[in-house]
Amino acid sequence: MQYEAVIGLEVHVQLKTKSKMFCGCATEFGADPNTHVCPVCLGYPGVLPVMNEEAVRKTILTGLMIGSEVARFSKWDRKNYFYPDMPKNYQISQYDLPLCAKGLVEIKLNGGATKKIGITRAHLEEDVAKSFHFETTSGVDFNRAGTPLMEIVSEPDLRSPDEAFAYLTALREILISGGISDCDMEKGQLRCDSNVSMRPVGQKAFGEKVEIKNMNTISGVRRALAYEIQRQTAALQKGEKVSQETRRWDDATGRTSVMRTKEYAHDYRYFPEPDLMPVVVSEEMIAEIRKLLPELPEAKRQRFVKQYGLPEYDAGVLIASGTLAAFYERAAQGSRNPKAISNWVTTELLGKLAEAKKTIDECPVKPEQLSELVSLIESGQISGKIGKEVFAEMFAGGKAASLVVKEKGLVQVSDTGSLDGFVEEAIAKNPKSVADFRAGNKAAINFLKGQVMKLSKGKANPQLVGEILLRKLEGG
Ligand code: ADP
Ligand code: ZN
Ligand code: MG
User: Fold this and answer.
1) Best residue among 94, 104, 168, 195 to mutate for probing ligand 1, ranked by most atoms within 8 Å of CB
2) Domain boundaries of the chain, sorted by first residue
3) Which stretch of 135-139, 190-194, 359-363 has the lowest confidence by average pLDDT?
4) Is 214 exposed, middle or buried (0-12, 13-18, 19+ CB in 10 A)?
5) This prediction's pTM
6) Which CATH class is domain 416-474?
7) Residue-wise burial string across 42-71, b where 16 or more C-beta atoms lie within 10 A, e elsewhere
8) Pocket of ligand 1, candidates 12, 199, 209, 261: which has the most ligand atoms within 8 Å of its Cβ, to mutate?
């Protein structure tokens, strides 16, 4: 029997707001434990939550980006359960009246086709604290508690781990483009629970689903789903039943294991939050938020391909972050070779930033400076290789390309007179390569070319060197 996977994802996104969902504490990541806390987010009795309007706006903007129906009236509910990272014993969430209902996210499949994945709902809630387990004790850091958290639930429309990967990638791009969240998975800003079941190909009804928790990368989700599909298929083929349960993914072993079975499923005893007013969204507010709608990632990707003549891949890398895309556009403006600019941004620049653990906002090289560097190379004033040296210097000191070139005397040598000398020297010092070349091993010229570049300390114009060498080798 052939089986087919049915997958639905629940994505939690920390919103990019200055303060928490129901108190004024900062949402800053990485601060000393329990330094951004107050009686509200610590769950003290007798305190009152106050709703963060910016979080509501960001959720509505998300809804508009994914084509949801934005509720003109929604409300807050208490989701009751006990856990040490949530001392109120309930989480404020939205149950039956979420801010956003329905919607669509378009994904790209291998081979270029697209598929629309349904969104069930997007609602707003508060994040919980974070537990840390040490050798003999455990600790709880409440800095995260109360961070605005949006949950986006997909319809069970995904059919493979690759589709789930594409969906998360597309959703992440959308969220970043709207400034909703930075979606940094290493910081836990985007987390995903995956639901997966198997059914015989051709059958309409869904099988029993298993929920997988604890995945913190998009590729982790893909691997976890692949494992789970294979585990469930093997069980079904043996005639066993797959039971509804929650499983945990272990990235190190590449396996899932049981966390809790259906019998232990929570009864959250939802009821309306009595301390908060319902959320009434006016038409004016929606119109105002609509003005913030950014160019959607797919549209931007297509525009980059057209306007700058970039391959889809390059465009995808560049649009993955709004600030990176903006950097690129500024650098490419007026450049005669936008593709070269893209190469520099996606390799050298991103590489150096990663090495220095800096974000694009902190990049010491300005877009206009990168643009200048590329035109120095384009016009043959410096070689590409020297360009890398110059770039490293620019990155370290924030200097302009032309200044580095001048200070270090790196201008490319293009006058035949001086190049002749280097070529003569290389020929004189490497008789074997010369003989090889003349005996028919044409590749031997590359070694000689390398020697000339070395003698010129990398400053010789490589194309001219090639021409002069060829002339001298073939001529004499
Ligand atoms: P629960 O009540 O257990 O949270 P939901 O109906 O809310 O279940 O669905 C949670 C997620 O699981 C959604 O993303 C949904 O698309 C997905 N889902 C629901 N049923 C199935 C199924 N049989 N197989 C795979 N995914 C499913
Ligand atoms: Zn607080
Ligand atoms: Mg659910």
Assistant:
1) 195
2) 3-287, 297-408, 416-474
3) 359-363
4) middle
5) 0.79
6) mainly alpha
7) bbeeebebebbeebbbbbbbbbbbbebebb
8) 209
